[in-house]
Amino acid sequence: MSRMSSNRFSVADQARQSHPIDPSEPFNLSWVTGKTIVITGGASGFGASFFKKWATAGANVIIGDVDDAKGESIVRTVRTATDNRNHHYLHCDVTDWQSQVNFFKQASKLSPHGGIDAVVANAGVVDVKAKFNEPENLDMDDPPKPDMRVIEVNLVGVLYTTHLALFYLPRNPGSEPADPNKSTSNIEESPRDRHLLLIGSMASLLPIPQQTLYGAAKHGVLGLFRSLRITAFTKGVRVNMVCPYFVDTGILTPAGRMLLAGTSLAQVEDVVEAGSRLMADSRISGRNLVVGPRLSIVKTEQGEWQYCRKEENQNCMEVSLWEVQTDDLETSDVFMRRVIGLMNAAQEMRGWILWTKDIAKVLFTWSKSR
Questions:
Q1: Is 11-329 CATH 3.40.50.720?
Q2: Distances, alpha carbon 296 to alpha carbons 23, 309, 314, 318, 320, in Å
Q3: By mean pLDDT, which of 116-120, 167-171, 203-207, 308-312 is the weakest?
Q4: Which of the four, 38, 57, 107, 361, has the lowest number of CB atoms within 10 Å?
Q5: Does residue 35 have an active-site annotation?
Q6: How many CB atoms lie within 10 A of CB 328?
Q7: 231-248 per-position pLDDT tens digit
Q8: Using 50, 70 and 90 to split pLDDT, how confident is the model at 208?
Q9: Active site residue 131
Q10: Catalytic: which of 218, 235, 245, 310?
Q11: Which residue in the list 89, 168, 214, 245 is annotated as catalytic?
């Protein structure tokens, strides 16, 4: 899992990004044992599925949600199933800063070791009624104010969660700064972690018709991830992201189901598997996994993937995880740094002479206008 670059100035190395993920490589879910994991939007959907999976593996999970009845119910069920009283439900409205502050503060106190190992910014909504630049009546005197709830939950709420995560994770007692070069044995010997997992969407990567605000919010989460993975290492925090394709959960609207009728959907268990891989292995940092429908594929002699049938090709393998933006830190991010560097160098080369000329032009124009 370690990343060894021949370039001593590699941005990926400086950001402590781990090596690209091999989905066929097994991982040990027991590495979450004893960790305290905080999940927003944990009463249903992916959050509830993460909760059940990681609690069963020995983690102490604290979920936050606005659905108190459902949250308290799932905690009772999981406590009984795992015989662990360290699972908790706390009311948390991610759009309310103080509500999130109270959530994190109480979660830290409830943790068996007094700290938080991992945070999952999972809370999200889809609102088909949230029209944007689509007025139903063009004869209206004034434009209707857009409903920004999707932005408030899916982006502002995630920013609040991230801000608090970067406050609490470095303070996790007994934790060590994230290090992609840890050996497997070290992971087991040092269970304390500093991990932020962002839950994005395919809408983080491509537009979805008539879901303008949802797409804008999820694109924002992707931008947050790309920024954090080259800066969060200063606090020893590893940041990863999961971008599920359309999945059969409550967040998929009836209109969405009709649009996708006859096509394959991603499976909840595959999303949970992707999140579990990132959560368990504390060497993984700066990676983004897309979770799609299960496909049978084979690699051609040209190194490209193509669809195949298992009954026709014994080399076919089933996959649902794909890593996206694998080399961004070495391509686009480095490219932009170089462009900015060139612009700064050019500005410096202009020096005082051209600066003086510019000032002279301003003074000349000003004098003529008097």
A1: yes
A2: 14, 6, 11, 4, 9
A3: 308-312
A4: 361
A5: no
A6: 19
A7: 888 899 999 999 998 776
A8: confident
A9: no
A10: 218
A11: 214
